[in-house]
What we know:
Layout: E1 4-7, E2 10-14, E3 26-32, E4 38-43, E5 53-58, E6 64-68, E7 76-81, E8 87-91, E9 96-100, E10 106-111, E11 128-131, E12 138-142, E13 148-154, H1 159-162, E14 177-184, E15 212-217, E16 223-227, E17 232-236, E18 242-247, E19 255-256, E20 262-266, E21 269-273, E22 279-283, E23 296-302, E24 308-313, E25 319-324
Antiparallel strand pairs: 1-2, 2-25, 3-4, 4-5, 5-6, 7-8, 8-9, 9-10, 11-12, 12-13, 13-14, 15-16, 16-17, 17-18, 19-20, 20-21, 21-22, 23-24, 24-25
Amino acid sequence: MAKRQGGGNYLFESVDNWCKIDIPGVVSDVATDSNDNVYLAVRTAQAFDANTGAILAFDRDGNHLNTFGEDKLRTPHGLWITPDDTIYLADTFDHCIRTYSPNGDPGMVLGVPGEPGPAGSPFNRPTLAVTSPVSDDLFVSDGYRQNRAHRFSPAGSDPAAASPYAHLKRGWENSEWELTASWGGGDLNYHDDLSWGSTEKHGTGPGEFLLPHGIAVDGEDRAYVMDRSNDRIQIFDRDGNYLTEWSTPSPNQGVFDTDGFMHVPGDGRMYILSPDGSEVAVWGERGHEPWQFIGGSHGLWIDSRGDIYVAQVGVPNAINKFARI
């Protein structure tokens, strides 16, 4: 039985039994393309240091269309799809970002597959890569070990910004991207005048991270970092300068809707935040019904109709759809 969720102007109805197949693994994240086809980042074995994974594609009614990436993906984590339908996948334990077409054709690889970056250098278990809605830049939360955020710009577009980071290049020398900003860390044991933060180090102060689990970019090119284990969202300008922060329980990810409100899955619930960070609605609960979260509310996407998809971790075959009403 469908059940209404949400609050205020944000009301949703659960779509029972949306997915028409049993998903062979844990759904880490979800995104939709310009046709509202749905893509799931799936870990087909839940052993973190030995995962295999894939991306599964569905139509908006939950019919399975395609599976791809099984030959390369190790631990799919964060998924992002651009307006031109380029799929970005952060492969956490492979320490890289991969792109695919909607048909599953592989594109570029950012980072060195299988090799974690040294202190201060991308990547060491990255969590999400997203593109800016107003520039051509790519922002990455380098979450589980580096406790950093990075900005990449198209090669040659900003040589002055890229130059200080030339010594950190690893595996993207021949790609279309250049590292143009990097920030975060805490409790430093690595530092020079060009970069800061360190592998396995973290902090609780402004501009420091304790597991940056996701990242979002608004229409002013500000970066919102989901500082999950610090129970907050930190906001920076595009160069990594700290602006402010919002207190939010265990934010896993943040996705803006067309009105500029952020939807945040975390702590087994859904938080809707206004542009100033105030809570507009809090909804969701743990349980085994189609409208509940049996696992953790881990990934989220909003399609062109305002419908919400929620990916859950901790249990296999867990994906929710909520239709906007």
